[in-house]
Structures are given as C-alpha cells and as structure tokens.
TrEMBL record:
Cofactor dependency: (6R)-5,10-methylene-5,6,7,8-tetrahydrofolate; FAD
Family listed: Belongs to the DNA photolyase class-1 family.
Membrane-spanning parts: 588-608
Photolyase/cryptochrome alpha/beta domain residues: 3-132
A GO term, aspect molecular function: DNA binding
One Pfam family recorded for the sequence: FAD_binding_7
Record GO cellular component, one term: cytoplasm
Cofactor note: Binds 1 FAD per subunit.
Protein's UniProt name: Cryptochrome circadian regulator 3a
Biased composition annotated in UniProt, kind: Polar residues: 520-533
Localization in the cell: Cytoplasm; Nucleus
GO terms for biological process, alphabetical: circadian regulation of gene expression; entrainment of circadian clock by photoperiod; negative regulation of DNA-templated transcription; response to temperature stimulus
Length: 644
C-alpha cells in the first residue's frame, strides 16, 4: 500500500535540492508539507520583526511554489512533540521525512520526534542537505573531536569525497500520482499568518531590503554568478562605501533559512570556475564563506554550550564587565561614535551589515572598548540579523572577541579610522545618521572635534543633538589590550600557549600601539604623530590598522588553537588590574631583539608558519638563550624556555 507522507520543513525552505522532500513524495499516495510555528516563540524578543518578516515571506513563497504542483504548505501552531501524534492518526501517516539538523538542540528535538514516530509505526527518513558535508565524518576523521583550526578543517575535508550533487527540483513529474488533500478552509486553518497576527506593530515599518523566499534566492544566485571576472581571478571584493550597503547579489540570509541550497551554490561556483579556468581544479579558497559556515557547524554540533562562555570547553573564561547601560548604548546606536552607530542603525533597520562592519562593532563591544561579554552581542545579532545562525553567530562572536579560535587580540578596529578609510566622504554615516548630515567629511567621523561654529552650521551640537563619545577609545583599547595580554599570559602558564610579546604602553601617537587613531586623526588628549613606522609593522599594515607593535607567536601544533585546549579545564582567570603598568613604561622587546629573533630563527626555517610544526630544537634553544641574555625581563625568559 502506498504510504501517506509528511515532510517537515524547518530550515531547507525550498523545492530545489531537497532530498528529504523527494523521499516524501517517492511512491506516496499523499504528501503534506508542514511547518510549525511555536506561539510562545512568536512573542519572544529573541527574534526581531525583520527576521520574522523574512521567515513569513519564505513560507509564503514556499506555499506559492507548492500551489503550482497542486499542493499547499500546512503552517501549524504548536510544538511538534505535542501535535505530531494527532497528525499521525488524523492523516493516517506512515512516513515522515525531514532535513538533518546538526545543531545540538535540533538533534535532541529530532530524537524525541523519531521516538514518537516509531511508537506510532511511522517510518522516518532523514537526509543531509543543509551542509556540504556529513559533519560526523569530519569529526570521525579527526579522531572523534571537531577540528578547532580552519587550517586543520581544510586538511580534513580535502581527504573526503566532494559534496554530493544537488538532487532534482520537485516537479509534477516527480510528484507523479502523489496528491495533497486540501480542504476548503485550508487558508483559515493552515495559512501563513501575518506579522500583525503574530502581535507585531507594523506601523512605520519600512519595506524589506531583503525579500524572503526561494524565488528571490535563485534570482540572486544568477546575478551573483554573473560576476565572472571576480570568480575567474578570485579577488576578494575590496571594502568601499558601496560594499556597506545591501547588495542585490547577497545570499547569506537565503543560505541561513535554506531558501538556497549550499550544494547548488557550491557546484555552480565550481562549474563557472572550470569554464573560465579551462577545467582546472578550483582552490578551496573559492568556497570561503561556505567552508567557514561548515567549520562553525562542525565545531558546534556536539557542544550544546557553544553559545555560552561558562561550561563551553573551547571558550576562554574572560572576566568581562557587566554594564547594562553601556550595552544598551551600543545596541541602540548611541555610543557617540558615528561609524559604530551608523552600523548598528543599519542592522536594526535592515537586518544586515557587511561582515567587516560586524567585525568593527563586535570588537568595539568586547575586547576593543567596552569590555562586555560576546554573549551579549551575540544575543543582539540573534534578534536583528537576518542571517543569524546559532552555530555561525556564536562561533563568530567567540572568534572576534578572542575567546576562541583567534588569538591576535592586539588587532583592534578603530571606530574612527576604519570608517574613514572605507568611506572618506562619510556618505554611509549621512544615510543612517541624518542628524550628522550637515558635517563636512573632515569631522563626520569625529564630530566632537569639530569647532563650535562647524557644529552650529551643521545644526547638530555634540552632547545635545548627538551624544558625546561614551569612552575615550585610545585609553580604553590600550587598557583592554593589556587585559587580554595578561589573560593569555595566564593561559601560557597553564599549557605553554606560546610566546606573548608585551604590548607597548606608548608609541609615536600615544595610543598604546594599537589600531586606534590613524595619522591625521585625533582624540582629545592624544598626540597626533605618525604611527606608520612601528617596530615590526609595515607602513601598509599600519595604514590598514593591522599593526600593534606587539607580536603573538603560537608554537602549538596545527591541530590545536590557543584557547581551545585550555577551555577543556575551564580555568578561572584571576581578575585583572584596573590600571596595568609596564616597568619603565617600555616593552621588554626592542627592535634589536626582534631583529635577532628573525635573523636566527626565521631565516633558517623558511617553512615556519604561525602554527609551527617542524623546529630544530637545538637551534631554537641556542636562539632562546641568546635572546634571554639580551633582555633582563624574566617573563620573556620563561616564555622562551617553556617551549622546551
């Protein structure tokens, strides 16, 4: 007897490349496609109106596409565990299909539903299609543990077979004789609700910048792939003023909701690359954002505490400050830094910001200026970002706050200089902060430095019409870099993390050597000298804001990351001093020491990388002893000798 099927949509809101949906209709007498809306979740503040609107548009588009196949989408209010037993009986269901969910809470939910289905005599079919790879195979290949460096992850997937090809889009032919029973009151009972029905006030809500749905996603991917020159040369698009605005070829929200198959995107990129490059094999870097997505999914799949600091085995426990007032100013775009406030305004209005803009506001909230936990920022992004994904969102925030995966805490985004280099004229600021529209480009990123006459002419008095800066960036970032340095020094004592060169307390511009204010930019109380010739920093990197005058060398093997293994013990770090000082106000590292280190160590080892794998121990020991003799700093000696 032909089965009666239910296909359960969660993510994967599409008809193309949906293997679980294909299984539902294969040889079936009837099929019903369901989506569950949790009434409690609809009223939660965890998801903002833009995300809800995008989801509802996805569901409307899915229902529209199913109608073309004489089917419909059944939107059901309630919890799946409470509703499924009734549906199994009422619809005489014998087959349930759904897409595999790799996230811990999803796996727990699905295990409970499988048990209910088994008790009801319902066959369950689960297919992987939200990720390129079977994440369990990656973990198995890595000895049962998720890889915690991107390099290791790339090594592992290079040993796997390529991702499976996308399956055929659901069509009349595939539907065959399978039908969907539809009642006359289907719209009333199972229709897609409106925002108003879910309790949202839509008065004054601007039109969607990102329309949801599979139809829009497929249109966008064709536009995206028309950029053949970019694919052919694989040049990363340069950051400029236009980059900051929502692009008609942007795909991230569609991948997050599964309106667009990641496998379809992967193979379309591959085909185009081979056509342009005459059948040469594409590099892994071509799939950059797709693979980062897989990396974070893999890291999170067996870690239910991945979005928490406490109890998270890969996260450093940093003693962040609790400051609700400062957090609110950041989230509500009232920091007094136009670059930060414009980004947060765009996020709240449109539900999307450029990935480097995300870096800027995340750094400002955490290790850069406010010293507030990444968990708080993650929650704001979860509410506002259309493409906020549990694994990727949490992983990115841990990364950007130097809580896991990434250790270069001395790289700090300047809330003035970064924006000024990206959009010198300040058009982005004027678009999202019209109160500052009257300021000339010279002062639009630091309007507090504008003379009173300029502020009056702009009809915006700083402190009255627009807030003053909530922190002194140069001082705050210098203090926070020192805090991070001490944290990593403590970690190095626990496991020999590597070599941490001290952060200078001052340099030519008086800002602690971090990426604070570029040449020509000034905050009250800071010198304005050129910082482009810091020790160990090239002119180009200083201009780009990537130099700090301090260096972190990681001598761990490739398979490890700095904070990751330490997190296994969840060591509690000591509270840090409020006003860290260095002896004599100088770094224990001077240019001569760094020069000798590079001369004796790097030149004989051309293959040396940040994760050093092959080292001549005798030569390294000789070099370490030489350097210890050159410096009177005991901590430096200990750092070197811990390598052995």
């Amino acid at each position: 007897m032909a089965p009666n099927s239910i296909h359960w949509f969660r993510k994967g809101l599409r008809l193309h490349d949906n293997p679980a949906l294909r299984e539902a209709v294969q040889g079936a007498a009837t099929v019903r496609c369901v989506y569950f809306l949790d009434p409690w979740f609809a009223g939660s503040s965890n998801v903002g109106v833009n995300r809800w609107r995008f989801l509802l548009q996805c569901l409307e588009d899915l229902d529209s596409n199913l109608r073309k196949l004489n089917s419909r989408l059944f939107v059901i209010r309630g919890q799946p565990a409470n509703v499924f037993p009734r549906l199994f009986k009422e619809w005489k269901i014998s087959r349930l299909t759904f897409e595999y969910d790799s996230e811990p809470f999803g796996k727990e939910r699905d295990a409970a539903i499988k048990k209910l289905a088994m008790e009801a005599g319902v066959e369950v079919i689960v297919k992987i299609s939200h990720t390129l790879y079977n994440l369990d195979k990656i973990i198995e290949l890595n000895g049962g543990q998720p890889p915690l460096t991107y390099k290791r992850f790339q090594t592992l997937i290079s040993r796997l077979d390529p991702p499976e090809m996308p399956v055929e889009t659901l069509s009349d032919t595939l539907m065959g004789s399978c039908i969907t029973p539809i009642s006359d009151d289907h719209g009333e009972k199972y229709g897609v609700p409106s925002l108003e029905e879910l309790g949202f006030d839509t008065e004054g809500l601007p039109s969607a910048v990102w329309p949801g749905g599979e139809t829009e996603a497929l249109t966008r991917i064709e536009r995206h792939l028309e950029r053949k020159a970019w694919v052919a040369n694989f040049e990363r698009p340069r950051m400029n003023a236009n980059s900051l605005l929502a692009s008609p070829t942007g795909l991230s929200p569609y991948l997050r909701f599964g309106c667009l198959s990641c496998r379809l995107f992967y193979f379309k990129l591959t085909d185009l690359y081979r056509k342009v490059k005459k059948n040469s094999s594409p590099p892994l870097s071509l799939y950059g954002q797709l693979l980062w997505r897989e990396f974070f999914y893999t890291a999170a799949t067996n870690n239910p505490r991945f979005d928490k600091m406490e109890g998270n085995p890969i996260c450093v426990r940093i003693p962040w400050d609790k400051n609700p007032e400062a957090l609110a100013k950041w989230a509500e775009a009232k920091t007094g830094f136009p670059w930060i406030d414009a980004i947060m305004t765009q996020l709240r209005q449109e539900g999307w910001i450029h990935h480097l803009a995300r870096h800027a506001v995340a750094c400002f909230l955490t290790r850069g200026d406010l010293w507030i936990s990444w968990e708080e920022g993650m929650k704001v992004f979860e509410e506002l970002l259309l493409d906020a994904d549990w694994s990727v969102n949490a992983g990115s925030w841990m990364w950007l706050s130097c809580s896991s995966f990434f250790q270069q805490f001395f790289h700090c985004y300047c809330p003035v200089g970064f924006g000024r280099r990206t959009d010198p004229n300040g058009d982005f600021i004027r678009r999202y902060l019209p109160v500052l529209r009257g300021f000339p480009a010279k002062f639009i990123y630091d309007p507090w430095n504008a003379p009173e006459s300029v502020q009056a002419a702009a009809k915006c008095i700083i402190g009255l019409h627009y807030p003053k800066p909530m922190v002194h960036h140069a001082e705050a970032s210098r203090l926070n870099i020192e805090r991070m340095k001490q944290i990593y020094q403590q970690l190095s004592r626990y496991r020999g993390l590597g070599l941490l060169a001290s952060v200078p307390s001052t340099n030519g511009n008086g800002n602690g050597g971090m990426m604070a204010y570029s040449p020509g930019e000034q905050q009250p109380g800071t010198n304005n000298n050129n910082n482009s010739h810091l020790p160990g920093v090239s002119v180009s990197s200083a201009a780009a804001g990537n130099g700090s005058g301090s260096i972190l060398f990681n001598f761990d093997s490739e398979e490890q990351t700095g904070p990751s293994s330490v997190g296994q013990q969840q060591q509690q770090l000591h509270m840090l001093p409020k006003n860290p000082q260095q002896k004599n106000g100088k770094s224990p590292w001077d240019a001569s020491v760094l020069f000798l280190f590079f001369l004796f160590f790097f030149l004989p080892h051309v293959t040396f990388s940040v994760s050093c794998r092959v080292v001549n121990n005798v030569h390294l020991f000789t070099t370490a002893v030489s350097l210890c003799l050159l410096t009177a700093n005991r901590e430096c000696k200990k750092s070197f000798l811990c390598l052995f």
